[in-house]
Fold this sequence. Notes:
The protein is of the alpha/beta class. Helices cover 42% and strands 21% of the residues. The chain contains eight helices and twelve strands. It has a five-stranded parallel β-sheet, with helices on both faces. The longest helix is centred in the middle third of the chain and has 19 residues. It starts with a strand and ends with a strand.
Amino acid sequence: xxxxxxxxxxxxxxxxxxxxxxxxxxxxxxxxxxxxxxxxxxxxxxxxxxxxxxxxxxxxxxxxxxxxxxxxxxxxxxxxxxxxxxxxxxxxxxxxxxxxxxxxxxxxxxxxxxxxxxxxxxxxxxxxxxxxxxxxxxxxxxxxxxxxxxxxxxxxxxxxxxxxxxxxxxxxxxxxxxxxxxxxxxxxxxxxxxxxxxxxxxxxxxxxxxxxxxxxxxxxxxxxxxxxxxx
Length: 231
């Protein structure tokens, strides 16, 4: 029985073939795409539980594929960069990828990261009770069932990870939550990606709920500690 379906979008044949062998050996179902458009089409056609997405792709860049898939799904995406380059790393963080690896990578580490992302995603699906209750704070109404935020009579859908982060802060309005606690609760205790991912998500949430995102009044940064939501 296959454990999960992995979509590998990789233009280098040697990496594509080795990933196919490695992941199948670990019990995963594997789909392969060698260009950006093929990757988008494969996901639209067959879906996936995790996507391994190379940053440099022909036809459509990895960033372009990422945005196209994020428009329709919150599937976990692990970005693969050609080298341990700071620019590539920043691109991955700005995109909001669930994790990233750099070439060359060890097969054992890659499989561990895939399994960790699957666990975190499964945990996030169970983050709210079966009969969730709306939460109203700071002029916002958060609906965990619909993943929406209503402000001034206007309702906006929010991606699951961003909503989980905002909901956690709202549940603890007035309290300062340490960065590591937030990461453990939203991404899972076994998350070993870059902690700047948290800052990227905070920035996106502020762009949704703050009147002036550059001068936030609702979500405050507590330097050296973490974040707090002003009630």
